[in-house]
């Protein structure tokens, strides 16, 4: 870790929250939505899922279009439960790590995500120690709100512009090497952790 680093930008899926693609696909298959498998990628979503994460469609439209694609009369709650099964948990040691890092750095969240996942995560994962998601980060940047997706340069430029932080003083942690490559092109330092890695070692 460079001694000049003042800011951290941290990804959500695969870095903080553990993911289970197989569980998610099986959950959708149980409700008759086999079509989800071709859309669900560990790093970048496709089709309806990409539109949802880019904020191009609302949650209501996503529900309706998924029902059409599946050809089944599936309820909104069934769809949401199946979709949320992609997210397993945020280990408590990572939440404690975030709190300790905030004492040393300005910590930001940058995630390709959607309203369904984010609302569930705020309720289930970030309520740790009676806190809220906002207690763990200086500011939160979510793709569906920004209408921008990693690995575009634009989403990183948005973070730099809105926070006023300098790229050379910033460290980005993301489980996608492609996302990290884009950040590096802008002068941001990066680290790509392995699946379920305890990446806290880079701060010791």
Automatic annotation (TrEMBL):
SUPFAM superfamilies: HAD-like
Family annotation (Pfam families): Hydrolase (PF00702)
Record key words, sorted: Hydrolase
Keyword Acetylation attributed: no
Family matches, as InterPro entries: HAD-like_sf, HAD-SF_hydro_IA, HAD_sf, PGP-like_dom2
GO MF term (any one): hydrolase activity
Name the record gives this protein: Putative hydrolase of the HAD superfamily
Source species of the chain: Bacteroides luti
């Amino acid at each position: 870790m460079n001694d000049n680093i003042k800011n951290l930008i941290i990804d959500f899926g695969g870095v903080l929250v553990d993911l289970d693609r197989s569980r998610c696909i099986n959950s959708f298959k149980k409700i008759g939505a086999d079509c989800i498998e071709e859309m669900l990628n560990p790093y970048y979503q496709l089709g309806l899922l990409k539109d949802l994460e880019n904020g191009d469609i609302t949650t209501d439209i996503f529900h309706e279009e998924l029902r059409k694609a599946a050809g089944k009369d599936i309820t909104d709650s069934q769809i949401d439960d199946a979709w949320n099964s992609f997210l397993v948990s945020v280990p408590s040691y990572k939440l404690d790590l975030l709190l300790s890092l905030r004492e040393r750095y300005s910590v930001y969240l940058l995630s390709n995500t959607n309203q369904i996942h984010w609302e569930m995560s705020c309720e289930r994962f970030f309520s740790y120690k009676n806190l809220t998601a906002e207690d763990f980060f200086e500011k939160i940047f979510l793709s569906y709100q920004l209408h921008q997706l990693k690995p575009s340069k634009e989403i990183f430029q948005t973070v730099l512009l809105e926070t006023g932080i300098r790229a050379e003083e910033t460290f980005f942690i993301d489980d996608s090497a492609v996302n990290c490559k884009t950040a590096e092109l802008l002068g941001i330092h990066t680290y790509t952790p392995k699946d379920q890695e305890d990446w806290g070692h880079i701060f010791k």
